[in-house]
Amino acid sequence: MARYDMIAPTEPIAALPVVRSIHPSDLIDVLRKGIEDFRAMPTHVVFLSLIYPVVGILIGRATFGYDVVPLLYPLAAGFALLGPFAAIGLYELSRRREQGLDTSWKHAFDVVHSPSFRDILAVGALLLLLFIVWIGTAQSIYERNLGYQDPATVTGLVRRVLTTPEGHNLIIVGNLVGFCFAVAAMSLSVVSFPLLLDRHVGAATAMMTSLRAVWSNPIAMALWGLIVAAGLALGFLALIFGLAVVVPILGHSTWHLYRKVIEPDDGPRPDVETPHRGRRYAAEFPSSLFAPSRAGDERS
After folding, report:
1. Considering the domain boundaries, does residue 8 fall inside one?
2. Quick one: pLDDT at residue 51?
């Protein structure tokens, strides 16, 4: 039997979504709802969140393996630039729970059936480009201050950074530039991905709406950015595995932030048929996540 539990408009909407003003105190409710989602869907969330610790560990190992210790901090900090895209499955689970639909973890991959999937990839590609430019910029800042010779250990790097004038300049300039990248990424994506999941609006409209949301709520959005930065920092300090808790809470909360900031669409939203999920086999992973299974084909 076909499934009809993915909701989306059949045509792209013409008018820009209406942006509402929120108060910083609304963020408390946003976080509360994000924690409720995390508690209601813990097994699904842990599965998705393992992506973050694994990638973080791989980044660390690659950094040490290629003797580019100075990039360890920029990589960890820049990792947040990709967070909004990587957490898109969490937004989908929150959307489904909000509408009383099945919240099994496999539905996190239903985003590939979204009418806006290409636009989601486009915004994700832009964030990836920002990440790459940030890493190149961070490397350039390091070389201008501490030269081209990399320290052999993290301890040696920390000593040079904390005890030399060049290191102090590196801290100031590097963090200021990193802050600009973070503001740009957050402004473009804070509501872009939830909006693309919720409506068929296009990448340009989604990013424009996100910029308008930040412009209309500068204090609340600045505070949200600090909350995200502090949460991710705590996650990394907890030997990276803290991200398995922090990231899902922030991801679910971002969906509810979107609900606070963007006026709901009251237009007709017909159901969109999604492929029937038959029995899956381990040998078919990961392709089975994006195509109907053999068992599903036999039934149809």
Report:
1. no
2. 58
Total domain count, the chain = 1
Q: How far is CA 199 from the centre of its chain?
A: 18
CA distance 156 to 58: 22
Spacing of C-alpha 45 from chain mean position:
14
Q: Which residues of 22-34 are buried (b: 16+ CB within 10 A; e: fewer)?
A: beeebbeebbebb
pTM of the model: 0.76
Question: Are 199 and 13 within 8 A, CB to CB?
Answer: yes
Say if CB 85 and CB 127 are below 8 A apart: yes
| In-domain check, residue 181 | yes
Amino acid at 1: M
- 5, part of any domain: no
pLDDT classification of 29: cutoffs 50, 70, 90: very high
Q: CA 260, 261, 262 angle in degrees (round to 5)? A: 105
Identify the DSSP state of 152. Answer: S
Contact 274, 5 (CB under 8 A): yes
Would you call 252 helix, strand, or coil by DSSP?
helix
> pLDDT tens for residues 165-209?
988 998 899 999 999 999 999 999 999 999 998 888 889 999 999
User: Cα separation of 272 and 8, whole Å?
Assistant: 7
Task: Let me know if residue 194 belongs to a domain.
Answer: yes
Give 152's contacts (C-beta < 8 A, 6+ positions apart).
67, 69
Structure token pair of residue 11: 């045509």
List all residues 6 or more positions away from 2 whose beta carbon is below 8 Å from its beta carbon: 273, 274, 276
Nearest-angstrom CA–CA distance, 68 and 59: 11
Domain assignment of residue 94, given as a range: 19-99+110-264+279-299
